[in-house]
């Protein structure tokens, strides 16, 4: 067991890959950055090789802990994270390492129900040119530093509030326009902006409370209800925050003094993404509300697209509403489909317009043998100069051609992400899958459709005798 630390880990000896840990190296972070490649242009390139990387958390995994007497006990639900490094062929499938708070160089100690990896976000927090990983656990946030050999060393983030409920949400971006990565941190009843860059001991330049208004007091489970993007056509990142329990959301615009409220509010939901769907330079806001009742069909789900403007959400432009009954969208509204359980966006067909990817975790074939166990799927909605449209939409069920087939029962859950891990300018759709052994699919696309075997990859939990896979393997960095 190691004592808790609030300073960066200093490493001795030559660079070595530590089994089950992160890479150790001699010298300081600054020296490592000088010796490495040019600064990465991606906020998730942990080793600076020019490819996006994929961080995955498994917060309820059990971790073996060896005591001072040599006896091994199990810390139930201590959690771990792992990284699938991107490359020419897409996501790394083998050789993944479980990074726990028992790993060399990682701050803190694994504790029962510590949930290390419950929320993740990435960015160059120490401004050394390499992406870093912020890891939320119960009551603490760790910063794991990137380097030319990947993640190495870390620190517990300094929290001037010293509150035990830190880390319910983590979102990275340049919210002040100084070119440095800041971090928005969730507590149970508030958000705070930690201004970067961070020092080696985890201290930010400054912190301030984010004023979200009286309608947004609870952030216990807020990671999917907060999105980062550029709504008002500027070079500074903005924040969209949805209220708890489907209450209305608000756009917070970034600026030199931090994040500020805008007057307009938007309909709430459980998931949100920002992208320029009509290519007018403003970030548009897609909100999924999987619990929405349509006619008498409970939890059928709906997605609303609010278009952006210089003042945040454009109140002069009608919100577009999409359901499974919208013209062009295959299928039909049914109770429990949960259309909008997750939303993500990327230009999948290389036409300059972002497509909208919509998860429907309850969608299932009526004839399936285990309808309430195996199921789920996702839609791809196209866009044009008029924005998102149902015309030409495609649905991919859990068992669609071109998707992997786990053994036993499995379900596509309520998290989606788009990332171009092989740099072919055709982003993959990243999908955590609940199955007998949970896994993450990196689904290749071509011309806006699922491409099939290549570059689709299946990322499985690390093979490590000291950790369990964890049924929640699949927490993605947002």
In short:
This protein has 478 residues and is mostly beta strands.
Structural class by helix and strand composition: mainly beta
The number of helical segments is 1
Overall number of domains: 2
Which regions contain 5 or more consecutive residues with pLDDT less than 50?
1-38, 366-372
Report the portion of residues in β strands: 25-35%
Under CATH, the topology of the largest domain can be stated as Methylamine Dehydrogenase, Chain H
Approximate shape: globular
Termini, distance in Å?
A: 31 Å
Share in helix? under 10%
Number of strands: 36
Biggest sheet record: 5 strands, antiparallel
**Proper CATH architecture of the largest domain:** 7 Propeller
Report the CATH C-level class of the largest domain: Mainly Beta
Rg, Cα atoms, Å: 21 Å
Arithmetic mean pLDDT: 86
SSE blueprint:
Layout: H1 29-35, E1 53-58, E2 63-66, E3 72-75, E4 80-85, E5 119-123, E6 132-137, E7 140-144, E8 154-156, E9 169-173, E10 182-186, E11 191-195, E12 206-210, E13 226-229, E14 238-242, E15 249-253, E16 260-266, E17 271-275, E18 284-289, E19 302-306, E20 308-309, E21 312-313, E22 320-322, E23 339-346, E24 355-360, E25 377-381, E26 383-384, E27 387-388, E28 394-397, E29 410-411, E30 417-419, E31 428-435, E32 439-443, E33 445-446, E34 449-450, E35 457-459, E36 475-476
Antiparallel strand pairs: 1-4, 1-36, 2-3, 5-6, 6-7, 7-8, 9-10, 10-11, 11-12, 13-14, 14-15, 15-16, 17-18, 18-19, 19-22, 20-21, 23-24, 24-25, 25-28, 26-27, 29-31, 30-31, 31-32, 32-35, 33-34
Task: Please describe what this structure looks like.
By secondary structure, this protein is an all-beta fold. The protein has 2 domains: 37-222, Integrin alpha, N-terminal (Methylamine Dehydrogenase, Chain H, 7 Propeller), CATH 2.130.10; 223-269 and 271-413, Integrin alpha, N-terminal (Methylamine Dehydrogenase, Chain H, 7 Propeller), CATH 2.130.10.130. The protein is built from 1 helix and 36 strands. The chain has one helix spanning 29-35; strands spanning 53-58, 63-66, 72-75, 80-85, 119-123, 132-137, 140-144, 154-156, 169-173, 182-186, 191-195, 206-210, 226-229, 238-242, 249-253, 260-266, 271-275, 284-289, 302-306, 308-309, 312-313, 320-322, 339-346, 355-360, 377-381, 383-384, 387-388, 394-397, 410-411, 417-419, 428-435, 439-443, 445-446, 449-450, 457-459, 475-476. The strands form 11 sheets. Strands 29, 30, 31, 32 and 35 form a 5-stranded antiparallel β-sheet that branches. Strand 26 and strand 27 (387-388) form a beta hairpin. The longest helix is centred in the N-terminal third of the chain and has 7 residues, at 29-35.
């Amino acid at each position: 067991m190691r004592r808790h630390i609030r300073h960066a880990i200093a490493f001795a000896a030559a660079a070595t890959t530590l089994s089950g840990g992160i890479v150790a190296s001699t010298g300081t972070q600054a020296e490592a950055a000088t010796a490495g490649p040019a600064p990465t242009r991606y906020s998730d390139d942990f080793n600076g090789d020019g490819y996006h990387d994929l961080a995955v958390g498994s917060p309820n995994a059990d971790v073996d802990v060896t005591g001072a007497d040599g006896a091994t006990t199990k810390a139930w639900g201590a959690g771990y994270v792992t990284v699938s490094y991107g490359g020419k062929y897409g996501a790394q499938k083998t050789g993944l390492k479980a990074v726990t708070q028992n790993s060399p160089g990682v701050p803190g100690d694994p504790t029962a129900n510590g949930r290390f990896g419950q929320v993740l976000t990435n960015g160059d927090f120490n401004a050394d040119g390499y992406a870093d990983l912020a890891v939320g656990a119960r009551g603490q946030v760790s910063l794991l530093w990137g380097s030319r050999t990947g993640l190495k060393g870390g620190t517990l983030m300094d929290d001037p509030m010293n509150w035990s409920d830190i880390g319910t949400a983590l979102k990275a971006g340049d919210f002040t326009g100084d070119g440095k990565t800041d971090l928005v941190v969730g507590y149970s009843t508030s958000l705070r902006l930690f201004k970067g860059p961070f020092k080696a001991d985890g201290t930010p330049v400054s912190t301030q409370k984010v004023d979200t208004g009286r309608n947004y007091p609870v952030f216990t489970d807020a990671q999917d209800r907060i999105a980062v993007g550029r709504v008002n056509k500027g070079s500074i990142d903005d924040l969209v925050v949805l209220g708890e329990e489907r209450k209305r959301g608000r756009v917070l615009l970034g600026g030199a003094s931090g994040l500020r409220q805008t007057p307009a509010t938007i309909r709430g939901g459980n998931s949100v993404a920002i992208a320029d769907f009509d290519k007018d330079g403003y970030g548009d806001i897609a909100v999924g509300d999987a619990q929405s009742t349509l006619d008498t069909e409970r939890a059928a789900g709906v997605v609303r697209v609010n278009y952006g403007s210089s003042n945040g959400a454009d109140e002069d432009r009608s919100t577009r509403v999409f359901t499974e009954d919208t013209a062009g969208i295959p299928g039909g509204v049914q109770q429990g489909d949960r259309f909008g359980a997750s939303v993500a966006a990327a230009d999948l067909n290389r036409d300059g317009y972002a497509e909208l990817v919509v998860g429907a975790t309850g969608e299932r074939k009526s004839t399936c043998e285990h309808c309430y166990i195996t199921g789920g799927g996702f839609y791809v909605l196209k866009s044009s100069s008029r924005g998102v449209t149902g015309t030409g939409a495609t649905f991919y069920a859990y068992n669609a051609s071109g998707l992997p087939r786990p053994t036993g029962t499995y379900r596509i859950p309520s998290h989606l992400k788009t990332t171009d891990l092989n740099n072919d300018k055709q982003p993959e759709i990243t999908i955590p899958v609940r199955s007998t052994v949970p896994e993450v699919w990196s689904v290749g696309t071509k011309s806006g459709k699922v491409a099939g075997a290549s570059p689709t990859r299946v990322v499985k939990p690390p093979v490590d005798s000291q950790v369990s896979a964890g049924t929640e393997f699949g927490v993605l960095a947002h």
